[in-house]
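Table 4 source record.
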Amino acid sequence: MSGLVLKLAPKERVLINGAVIENGDRRTRVAILTPNANILRLKDAIHPDDAKTPVRRVCYIAQLVLSGDVDPDEARGQLLTGIEQLSQVLCDADSRRMLDDASSAVVSARYYQAMKALRTLIPREDRLLAADQA
């Protein structure tokens, strides 16, 4: 079996190419055979009210592409600019690697991979913001 395999919990929802799909009462595996399908687990989605920090805002832009709410060509520049701005602040090697991965994914129009790489920076951003407020 090729393509992406989603493992869904009971009643879990996922957005695939703009359509919300809800799993039934049992765990399920779904194979997505269409290349470059836009997929977003709704449990991973960032609510617009929560997109208040730099990393979350950039993640949210990628999420809007996946949900079909923003044209990918329109978002590409915003994403690359946001990633560049984040690279000015997050200078450690691990953050740089994640930002490089996100940037490469955006250039290749792989928005889920970009969002995934950026999401790994959220805990780091939370720690930095908490330390700044202390």
